[in-house]
Amino acid sequence: MKISNQNYTSETFSHIYIEKDALYYPLTNKITSKLNKSKIVYIDNYNEIFSRKNQNPFLQKLSPSLILAVNKGDFIYKGSTLCHNFEQQNFYYTNFVVNCLLDCDYCYLKGMNFSSNILFFVNLSDYFHELSRLLNVIKERPERGQGKLYLSISYDSDILLFEGIYPFLKEWIEFAEANPQITIEIRTKTSNYKKFLNYSPLENLIITWSISPKEVIAKYEKNTPSLERRLMAISQLLEKGWKVNLALDPILYIGENWRDTYKEFLNLLSVNINLKKINAITLGVFRIPVEYLKRFKKFFKSPISFFPYDTVNGVSSYPEELKSKMIEFVSSELEKIYDKRNIYIV
Ligand code: SF4
User: Fold this and answer.
1) Each residue's pLDDT tens digit, 92-113
2) What is the full DSSP assignment across 223-245?
3) Fold category of 15-345 in CATH
4) Does ligand 1 have an atom closer than 6 angstroms to the CB of 161?
5) C-alpha angle with apex 21: 17 to 26, nearest 5 degrees?
6) Residue 263 pLDDT greater than 70, yes or no
7) Which of 1, 99, 100, 227 should be mutated for ligand 1, with most atoms under 8 A from CB?
8) Which tens digits make up the pLDDT trace of 301-328?
9) Domain-by-domain residue ranges, the chain?
């Protein structure tokens, strides 16, 4: 699998599974023409491949297949309480791409999905229809969040990885332009900033960069761009006037020297990017539904899976005392270099 430049080659996916209904969508042709050496297998329903039990997601992660399907279920979901909602009443997310080619040890997708294959839903226009309907509902009930809607479009994947084969950015940017009452958030660890340079910055489109100390990236964020490359990408877009958030999330307990590691990391941020231009910063320690953690332990033998977490209301995370210490330390260090009114803690 070649993903070092986030440029796709025919070897990226040895197999593409295509739902027969997906053949009617032009996007399917566009995608397959870019991956013209992959072996194509036609299927009736994507769940035959994606949701089959007894798969080994660890082995699939080494060489995932691509699945092209039509989403016939839900398009827009209420945001999880485990995510930052920026105090927005109408906080939603959507997923037209599921799973990721990057390989973070703490990624909840590894616990949530039976498969590590990459799933693209090719009926993007249906997402926009549903979103327009939801916006109308919200507009008619302005007491709910002043008619505004916050939508994260990349919770179940790092979608910017795939822009080269699944061109979604133009359509989302056009939708945001036409609907100022929606704020769209794209979350990423890539360094793919150049695509944005083809457009003018939008007040209601936020790019959230997930960043971590170098030690965390080296140990727990396999295949991801280095911190330097991410900071360079952030600087480029800030300079062009794009709205950028930073996600220092998950903050990980990486041994007794965690304070030094995070202090050095925050120092590096203040030196390398103009923090005054950052729209907001979110903080949160590692947390995961306990059921997902069970799958981590079964298939992914990372130290992240085996830390002695506490579980409260079905969510596993660090014991309360450690969690508080970590949040207090990182937030108080961050407040020395960044406006605390724009720091959000989950
Ligand atoms: S970049 Fe995000 S979606 Fe991809 S593996 Fe890492 S945590 Fe998961």
Assistant:
1) 999 999 999 999 999 999 999 9
2) TPPPHHHHHHHHHHHHHTT-EEE
3) pyruvate-formate lyase- activating enzyme (3.80.30)
4) no
5) 85
6) yes
7) 100
8) 899 999 999 999 999 999 999 999 999 9
9) 15-345
